[in-house]
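Technical appendix A lists one of the benchmark inputs used to test multi-chain prediction within the project. The record comprises two sequence entries:
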Amino acid sequence: MKHIITRREILGLIAKTGASGAVLGASNALGIVPNTYVDIPEIPSANPANRPNVVLLGAGVGGLTAAYEMKKAGYNVVVLEAAAKAGGRNMTVRHGDLIDEVGNPQICDFDDEPHMYFNAGPARIPSSHRNVLHYCKELGVELEIFINENKETYIQDDAMLNGKPIKNREFTTNARGFMAEIMAKNFTNAELDSPLDEWETDALMHVLRNMGDLDEDMVYRGSTRGGYSHGGFLEHGHALETVALRDLLKTGLFSMAMGQNEGETGPILFQPKGGMDQIIKGFLRQLPEEVFYNVMVTSVMLQDGGVEVVYEHKGMKYKIEADYCFNSIPTHLMTGIDNNFPEDYREAMRYVRRGEAYKSAFQAKERFWEKDDIFGGISWTNQPIEQIWYPPHGMYKEKGVILAAYNYGGGMHFTQLTQEERLETAIRQGEKVHPDYRNLVEKGITIAWHRMNHMLGCSARWQKSRGGFTQEEERLFQTLRNPAGNHYTIGDQITKHTAWQESAILSAHWAINDMLSRKAGGNMPGRRV
Amino acid sequence: MKHIITRREILGLIAKTGASGAVLGASNALGIVPNTYVDIPEIPSANPANRPNVVLLGAGVGGLTAAYEMKKAGYNVVVLEAAAKAGGRNMTVRHGDLIDEVGNPQICDFDDEPHMYFNAGPARIPSSHRNVLHYCKELGVELEIFINENKETYIQDDAMLNGKPIKNREFTTNARGFMAEIMAKNFTNAELDSPLDEWETDALMHVLRNMGDLDEDMVYRGSTRGGYSHGGFLEHGHALETVALRDLLKTGLFSMAMGQNEGETGPILFQPKGGMDQIIKGFLRQLPEEVFYNVMVTSVMLQDGGVEVVYEHKGMKYKIEADYCFNSIPTHLMTGIDNNFPEDYREAMRYVRRGEAYKSAFQAKERFWEKDDIFGGISWTNQPIEQIWYPPHGMYKEKGVILAAYNYGGGMHFTQLTQEERLETAIRQGEKVHPDYRNLVEKGITIAWHRMNHMLGCSARWQKSRGGFTQEEERLFQTLRNPAGNHYTIGDQITKHTAWQESAILSAHWAINDMLSRKAGGNMPGRRV
């Protein structure tokens, strides 16, 4: 605890270690900012007399991307979708929609209005996700700004302040104040390898004073940044009473509060106007006859120079022989479908597990949050609902749809409950944040992704520990990412940044580019080894 | 430097000192969060046989608010405006608009499209400004989200990294990393009045590790939150190289970078769709015949039970005798207009100084910032232009209007230049942030608020030092805030949080309520003392 700032830290001379396990784990916890580029595959136009035939399994973002790009190049594409509609996990729920959870089907009963929708799957598009943005632009999907962090929202923890919710601005202002004071008071140059000089130390103190809104004596005595008790315009404002650091430390949400605006959710986020599935609708406008619904694939067989797919539809059996198959069926379901994949490929498919994300939503009878200065953003609680999201759209309309629970890691907590219990739990927990919650919400819906028909899981999980891919995991990953014969597994399941649409798109681009490079090498059938 | 956390700091037992001078100064530097409530004056309906006559001087936000509310109650209201259009500092500049700067009139030559506008005055509405939001709702002004902080924007300082601009995310991630490491390494419990126990210390370390994205050994070795050098989706991402704390400390923009999302600009911000003057247009829809333009007030005389106003219009002189006068003429201009105000009232008027804010804007030939992942937000530089704002609206359209300079405190720097020199300076300085800037922007406009006709100044400045109001300033303020006879000075100039529309509105509400309370006391003429 002695060497406070080493030469390395000061001069930044030592190279980065990269995304080591620890860094990656911490990064994932708060979201990271991948730096990718738009690189749409350049597919040579097909010879009209000899168009490649491609069958795509699954009409999610990955499959539709691949189908769209290959159709543009003149390929014959056929997309087989198990569900009654396209989108996969890109799912927007509106009035009358079926939530096809196994054993718990629901019909959404929200008011039938354009702003009354719920993005049950992806709901945020970071501005760094250039490929999603590219397709939104190309497909005419209008984007609007999504609000992730809003300092008017609440942080509530039963262990903190007797469970009383406090505004995010109050939390963060006090936290920054006390932390800046600690840093200023403790700072010493004595044992630095390369000590800060007087000017640099002054500069640091200046930063700390501003960061914490400290008094001239570098003591935090509260700040109007956290909110006013009274005054503010006609008269000088007076700050709220301070909340002690000791109290703030009682909640495990502290890190979230200090890091909500960092990393992947830090820059600007977007949502499509009218629901995330506007992206799906955009693709489908370009694929009006290529997507077939309610199709159950029963067999996928590699052949010399192609793939044979057998499927059922309304009790009838069909067979397609295609030059290529792009398959986004979740691998843990694909292993249950007849196939002749190589054993290592099957082994990789079996390895991938799936997340158990759970969401629920309510229709709010009135937009009660707006009366509390909340326009978009997220309230956080230590209870299993974890989050309450307020819509960034529909301002000042009569009603709105709020996310009432978003349990990313442990959806099983809710899954074991009946639908009525799930909703009652969400209400009871929401009441700790908004006391009159019970009277303000209605018509709840729930989504347990690991029980959704045709998916039985949320995003793919490759890593068994948070410490990054093991060597064995890397081998399995590379096996599955590369084709088996002319069969490509696609989707966010074969990327290292799962659960994002950007990844699904990039997996499709990767597979197309790989296909093209192999064709360039002579279009040999079978699997290159 | 020894008592790191005192009992007070830990337990938060000592009451806040309120907005002391130092706190207020620091708060103003980063913006504060006033906590006000919507309290529209309840004006008893006027007797139709005896409607009060009110003359309002100036059709800015304050005057229009007062006129609107009193007209609703059945008062006869007349608004006299010196300029050719309403709004005052609420000014949106579009194709063909005159910028009426004394000695430097300009006609805006932007393309004639709805998204090609520039908010030359107020451009942001904090979600805590409930009264502005109230009128937007009541007047049918549609709001959209304004982006203030965007981590994809740049920070550029000639003194830092040889003037190379770096992304805000890179700056803040490194700053947070090194600061968290310093705090963790330096933390000691030894001399605390009320030491953190082991659990609390662990909790703090956990927060610091997450805040800084530190390694397990509590050392900052870079973080993918600041951006990727390569990878991120298909493969693991690798972070950019670290930037040393020593380098970051070289810029005076450090505090801004750590506090841009704090205080008044911290929660959600809005802008009216189509330009800030949609608010003015909303008021004018409700006052279709009450506002008169190109009117020069030449005399304001208090009378028993009323106010006499003389004005000129197109060479003719007119006189109005009204029961009340609500006057938002900037006081430094009002002192040059004939009046019979009491000497202490005049003294107060003379005391108020005005800011010298300067803004300029360009039409961009293409939305070059979007290719750089920037969608809204502000880049900062140590050069006199200080800021470059990217529009949060018009995404993916061909062109856009960007703010090219926002110099809040020292507009004189630009004012002494010719129009051509002002624009050349903005280009030369902008090139340090965006190298190809010169070829990307055109049709620049500039606004020197202290030279704008009929205003000759930006927001009112009461305080001569940053240390809060002196006793004498408080006396002058209260003198001017209270009426002289039946004459009220209104506008943000008689509030303690000037430069915001919310303040102008609240000043109008205050004056109306004061008028009503005095009427309730018997409607006595003259000034109550």
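Confidence is low (pLDDT under 50) at residues 1-35, 521-529 of chain A. The CA atoms of residues 515 and 521 of chain A lie 10 Å apart. Comparable benchmark entries are summarised in Table A2.
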